[in-house]
Amino acid sequence: MELLEGRDVPLGRYSVVRRTLPNKVRRTVGAWCFLDHFGPEEVTGKPGMRVPPHPHIGLQTVTWLFDGEIRHRDSLGSDVLIRPGELNIMTSGRGIAHSEDSPTEKPPLLHGVQLWVALPDGARWQEPRFEHLEDLPVAEAAGVRMTVAVGSLGGVTSPAAVHSELVGAEVRLDAGTPAEIAVDQTYEHGVVVTDGGARVEGVDVPPGSLLHLPEGRSSLRLASEGGARLFLVGGVPLDEDLVMWWNFVARSHEEIVEARDEWQAGSSRFGVVPGGQEPLPAPALPTTRLLPRPRARAS
């Protein structure tokens, strides 16, 4: 097991997130290649989240809220307000653009996670699509309640469309009641604590850190003295080396350069996000060639 510390990263002009994937040690958990935990933040009288239109290729975005509301708009014409317990899953495929903003009239707190799933090579050139799912399955056992956003857990399965073997779920632990949940032993898993304090397989996991557990486990033992909330991710280890830069997941330097050039040129590849916001310009490319990276750094 590896306990990986998150790092603070600015998001837009007004927000800071704690990023646990990619990490200098581990870049993916299954096909999950990006995990930001934001909040809880008091946003009364503040702008809240303000992320202008920006592009994606080669991935799915997964947005999950614990508190607050976010308005999602994309170049397919989607315009959706996401609330706690609901799922936004956007498949970029060959290219899409979207914006994410707190509405003008909003709840006082903003708290959630934003994740990316790397699309496998056979699925990454598909046409983009967007799903908003309000009715997600819930599984309960002694001391634990699980809302399954992606994949299967606790005998229930999310209707969200994915392209590799994955699981993603919000897990709530009761105070003082140890729990054990069955998991797929072909998966590796990652656990982020978002509220309270928790022990996972005997390891104390502080908020803002990710505990990585390799494949081979058929269950996870969880406990919390005062109650806790976690987000669990997992999947079959990804055997494809990725090139990740800015908002793009690709397989070569040339693919990144092409996507950046097309975004900067206003290409129809990414479309137009309604709302009249100025699109986010791409940063300058590094002076060295971008190289594919494996899922974990060699020890």
UniProtKB/TrEMBL annotation:
Residues 17-117 form the Pirin N-terminal domain. Coiled coil: none annotated. Pfam families: Pirin, Pirin_C. Residues 272-299 are annotated as: Disordered. InterPro entries: Pirin, Pirin_C_dom, Pirin_N_dom, RmlC-like_jellyroll, RmlC_Cupin_sf. Residues 169-266 form the Pirin C-terminal domain. Belongs to the pirin family. This is Pirin family protein. It comes from Dactylosporangium maewongense.
